[in-house]
Amino acid sequence: MQGSFTKMCTVFRARPVGLSILVLWCAGAAAQQAGPVSPKGQSEEAPPAVVEVAPVLIEPAREEIGVVGSLMAEESVIVRPEVAGRLESIEFKEGQAVEKGQVLFTLDPAEFQAEVARTAAATRLWELKYERARDLLQRKVMSQQEYDESLAQLQTARAQLALERVRLAKTRLVAPISGIVGLRQVSPGDYVEAGHDMVNLEAVDPIKIDFSVPERYSAVLTAGQRFTVRVEAHPGREFAGEVYAIDPRLDEANRTLRARGRIANGDMALRPGMFAQVQITLATRERAVWVPEEAIVPRGGEQFVFRVREGRAALTRVRLGVRQVGRVEVVDGLKEGDTVITAGHTMLHDNAAVRIVNLPVTAAPGV
Questions:
Q1: Whole-structure pTM over 0.85, yes or no?
Q2: By CB distance 3.0 to 4.6 Å, which of 172, 248, 283, 319 could disulfide with 332?
Q3: Which residue, 270, 285, 300, sits at the end of a domain?
């Protein structure tokens, strides 16, 4: 029937009869075969797209960078003698905590004590000579030059005596700082030369960390910024620290800026020389807007989301910020109370009707 109708209309159009009534009849018949039309003369709208949605979340966002660092002692000293001698005694146990000024080693003091005694006797003799010279000068029996020479000799003897006493005191090696002693390199009875390494002493509470950040962060890295540290020795544990010093000069080889921070280490969990992963907080936004990663629709180098507004999808351009596992911060384009489409938006377009098949935790007004 349809083929006959089409053939007949074609024949009528081919003939130059100019009968307008036949042309109108053909157009009306064709419209009836095309199916029903909407009141506005357009085709009926496609059924609503089935989608899943999620509300935006308002939570703090921290802008962070991750770098690597190396732990080092707050203060580190290698104890060395300033005078040579035979080691008489060791006054500590390896690995123990010691206080500043505590005796660590004692060298045999006999030779130094003898030098002090000899110099003290010579000094006493020069004191007696000086007293006689002063008396003779007052009686004008001695010249001023002889008196001055006697005074100079006495002062030289006293200086020598002070020097010998200092050398004697250096036979007792004391801790220059409070900290933990390491493993000693000497034994009682050893003869040690001046400058010989005897034991290391480390102050590790707090402990310091050195790390470098790329040049592009040099403008935002400041003293006082907080960071967290992870080490392999304590998996799952974070240690909080604070930047206290920044090198004013960038490393020309790799264009990085060196910084140093401190970490509380009361339980001695961290040790100098450890390798550490450092997370530095550059900025914090207390009321940041978060959406699931699935809600982001990249188009033409820009980022979009579909908001749900009065039962329809509203294509919205957004600017992204911090990314975390499974979610991303939206810096611009969304606000508290919005609801975004997370599934089913592959074939969506702006203003398309949608049907929600999941119930969001907090539905936005007008969804």
A1: no
A2: 319
A3: 285
